[in-house]
Design a protein that fits this description.
The protein contains nine helices and six strands, in the order H-E-E-E-H-H-E-E-E-H-H-H-H-H-H. It has 228 residues and is α+β, with helices and mostly antiparallel strands. The protein folds into two domains: 12-79, no CATH class; 94-222, no CATH class. Strands 1, 2, 3 and 6 form a four-stranded mixed β-sheet that branches. Helix 2 (93-105) crosses helix 8 (194-215) and helix 5 (148-159) crosses helix 8. The relative contact order is 0.14. The structure holds zinc ion.
Length: 228
């Protein structure tokens, strides 16, 4: 991994993301233990993790303190992630979902276009490799911008969480009798295989469902799956 460095000072908006991510993670989880369904946890550990906030088409690395919680009944541990974050991703949820949604919902829209902001590339604020970086890290730095393949992967990642998001889809169907969910048409230019078409449809369905339930303020559903 390339050595990341948090700029000092951070822009105010990036600082707000950093504070909110740390604050959310430190709040006692309200979910049940995935292992034994117990609702009681205590703090186990904390660790620093990198996230990337995009502000005005600049990627700002932010180093956030996350709390690992432990179930008092069975001892299972898990990291409590802020709803701003997505498990195993550095980019923030809003970035991932907005770009994925723009791609699947806008015709015509290519991956090359969806990674730009008003026609300009989204770039890192600073070189992320330094003199001690390995060759692999320096090579990575040759492309210090949000890449089309990243959004392609995000869409696959969202579609893969189909099972987890089923409660949101069911709820959205009840709210809108399925109207907004059944009008999905993916532009034919966006896929070459039926498998990819299904991935795009699933991604679009899940994002629409999530938008419908969050509009109604079903906050527990909005944070579905945010705690690995
Ligand atoms: Zn447990």
């Amino acid at each position: 991994m390339a050595r990341l460095k948090e700029p000092d000072p951070l822009p105010a908006e990036a600082k707000r993301y950093k504070d909110r991510i740390g604050h959310d993670s430190a709040r006692l989880p309200t979910k049940r233990c995935a292992n034994c369904a117990c609702r009681h946890f205590h703090r186990h550990q904390q660790r620093l993790r990198w996230f990337q906030a995009v502000i005005e088409r600049i990627v700002w690395p932010i180093h956030c303190l996350l709390v690992r919680w432990c179930c008092v009944n069975c001892g299972a541990t898990f990291t409590h992630l802020s709803p701003l974050c997505v498990p195993f991703k550095r980019y923030l949820r809003s970035e991932i979902e907005t770009r994925a949604e723009t791609y699947v919902e806008t015709d015509p829209m290519s991956y090359r276009q969806v990674v730009k902001e008003r026609g300009s590339a989204v770039v890192y604020n600073d070189p992320i490799a330094n003199a001690e970086s390995t060759d692999a890290e320096k090579e990575k730095e040759a492309t210090p911008e949000l890449r089309p393949s990243t959004v392609h992967r995000w869409i696959g990642g969202i579609a893969a969480r189909r099972e987890q998001w089923q409660p949101a889809v069911r709820l959205a169907r009840q709210i809108h009798q399925g109207a907004r969910l059944s009008s999905l048409v993916i532009a034919a230019a966006k896929y070459r295989s039926q498998a990819r078409k299904r991935v795009l449809e699933t991604c679009s369905l899940l994002l629409r469902a999530l938008r419908i339930v969050t509009e109604r303020n079903f906050t527990p559903l909005a944070t579905l799956g945010s705690s690995p």
